[in-house]
Amino acid sequence: MNTTYFRNLVAGCMFKTGDHQEVPAKYYIGLSTTDPTEQGACTEPVEMNYKRVPFENITTPDDGYIKNQEAITFEESTGSWGVITHYLLFDAESQGNLLLYGRLKDPKTVDSETIVTFRPEEFKIRVVNAEIE
């Protein structure tokens, strides 16, 4: 799902309208224990060695898809992060704006000494057709 911020960012940048922002230089993947909102609210784990990881080494677009070419691996947890239900894509390593989010196919309980990894080509983002309403 796209946040309202991201939809406005893309439309503003593509068509150079309104008060559009610059395209972020880097992107970061995060995890959430709650269903994020279109307004960008989410619940990331607090401490216990949790931090967002860079989203880099991605494929060139193919039919609107980009994928991670290498594994995306979070640091080993030092305590419980809870049940991770969603992935998040931000424009900053901390704070920043939530851009995209989605539900994990299989929620994961993260206890102490757990490493969360997305295998190569497992993390996919797709741009879909625009609609006229």
What would you say this structure looks like, in words?
It contains 1 helix and 8 strands. It is mainly β. It has a domain at 4-17 and 25-56 and 77-119. Strands 2-1-5-6 form a 4-stranded antiparallel β-sheet. The longest helix has 12 residues, at 4-15. The mean pLDDT is 92.
* Number of DSSP strand runs: 8
DSSP helical segment count: 1
The portion of residues assigned to helices is under 10%
Unreliable runs, pLDDT <50, ≥5 residues? none
What would you call the shape? globular
Largest sheet, order of strands side by side?
2-1-5-6
The H/E string reads HEEEEEEEE
Mean pLDDT: 92
Report Rg: 15 Å
Approximately what portion of the residues adopt beta-strand conformation?
25-35%
Give descriptors for this structure:
133 residues; mainly beta; 4-stranded antiparallel β-sheet; two-stranded antiparallel sheet
Architecture blueprint of SSEs:
Layout: H1 4-15, E1 28-32, E2 53-54, E3 65-67, E4 72-73, E5 82-90, E6 98-110, E7 117-118, E8 124-126
Antiparallel strand pairs: 1-2, 1-5, 3-8, 4-7, 5-6
Quick synopsis:
With 133 residues, this protein is mainly β. The protein has one helix spanning 4-15, and strands at residues 28-32, 53-54, 65-67, 72-73, 82-90, 98-110, 117-118, 124-126.
